[in-house]
Amino acid sequence: ALDTTLPVGVVSALGREIKSMTNRTIKDVIQTDAAINPGNSGGPLLNSLGQLVGVNTAIYSPSGVSAGIGFAIPANTVKRIIPQLIAHGKLFRPVLGIETLTDYWASRMQVKGIAILTVKPGLAADLAGLVGVRSDARGNIHLGDVIIAVDDEPVTNEDSLLSLLENHEPGDSVKVTTLRDE
Hints:
The chain has helices at 75-88, 103-108, 124-127, 158-165; strands spanning 11-19, 25-32, 44-46, 52-60, 69-74, 98-100, 114-119, 134-135, 141-142, 145-150, 153-154, 176-180. By secondary structure, the protein is an alpha+beta fold. The chain has a 5-stranded antiparallel sheet with strand order 1-2-5-4-3. Strands 6, 7, 10, 11 and 12 form a 5-stranded antiparallel sheet that branches.
């Protein structure tokens, strides 16, 4: 077996955005043509001095082989999250304490923004008075709050909401703009 391999390539772009397997946007990644093979994804991306510049995370390969465009998370991003991973074994991200209406139902109901399905008791959205979908005495379903902006930045889908929240640390205050169907 080939124990050690050092593929060589060129960093061809910085600040790229890619979609993860869960359809989340990963921002500010490094693009490289260095081969990312099974077994070395997650490995270091080094410069010619042997310094860590990123951690290989994905490859776009139209042919399905290990040739294509590789992507790495920048070392500065890794440095920011490593202390949490060491201390807690996972990354803590800010949450509002809501479940959202799926994109399918939001588009069927012509919602512009993120419709709140439910609000988790005792969490930030509940404490702020946000409400989710509810029914009236006749059983008719009514939308509650629809999030249209966070910190005055427009929210168009769940990915944009999560990306805006990730600009903050858990416990930070954020400005959430909503519309309510009364």
